[in-house]
Amino acid sequence: MAKVSVGLRGWRFDEEEIFTEEGELKPLDEIPEDPRERLVRLTRLVEEPCDVCYLEYGEAEIHRCNQARIVYGEPRGEVLLCPGHEPSFVYWFHEAGGSEHKGTRALAEHFHEWAAAGNEAPEGYGAVEHVDEDPDGLPDPPDEREIQERLAEEAGFERERIDIRKLAGTEEPSEDERVTDEDLADLDLSTEYPSDR
User: Fold this and answer.
1) Which DSSP letter does residue 99 get?
2) Which pTM does this prediction carry?
3) Within this chain, do residues 110 and 74 fall inside the same structural domain, yes or no?
4) What is the rounded CA–CA span in Å between residue 129 and residue 150?
């Protein structure tokens, strides 16, 4: 059985468990529970920043963070890394007690504490040797929308349009109350509004 990564390196899947013979992703109900959970989780992780970069720059300078390329740990307790910070995780795991948290969701929390304290791998400490036959050819996981559609389809749910006005107990606006193109003509979309972020 060949092992493959999907979207990010690190989590490995048995190819036969998740792909059909034609190379298409199997229906979710045909994928065993653990790989299915990881695939669904990957849809949220593939665009996220490296955890160590984020600890360094924070939300205010998130644009400076490298995009994560590697994932370790358990779903909802995973560590996301760029190639430059992977050696620090590997060092922490093998040399600084990180392996005590193997298989737990607390792994990420403990690594984040260690990294936030300014710890890192010694100069020249190596990363994991990933065997990449085609490093840019990692298959993409399905996006969240596709996962939701598949789940709904497989469970037999029909999509339903939700009417917010009906839920709020308000009526459809009259012709006089509707917003027109004229009303929007003077709207300045470049205006910055206060935000909690």
Assistant:
1) G
2) 0.65
3) yes
4) 35
Residue 8's DSSP bridge partners are: 6
Phi, psi (degrees; rounded to nearest 5) at 13: -120, 145
Q: What whole-number distance in Å separates Cα of residue 91 and Cα of residue 9? A: 18
Residue 197 in this model has a pLDDT that exceeds 50: no
Residue 5's CB: how many other CB atoms inside 10 A? 19
What does the pLDDT look like over 67-120, one tens digit per residue? 999 999 999 999 999 999 999 999 999 999 999 999 999 999 999 999 999 999
Q: What is the rounded distance in angstroms from the CA atom of residue 81 to the CA atom of residue 75?
A: 15
Residue 44 burial (C-beta neighbours within 10 Å; 0-12, 13-18, 19+): middle
Tell me, yes or no, whether 38 and 53 share the same domain: no
Domain total in the chain: 2
For residues 54 and 105, state if they share a domain. Answer: yes
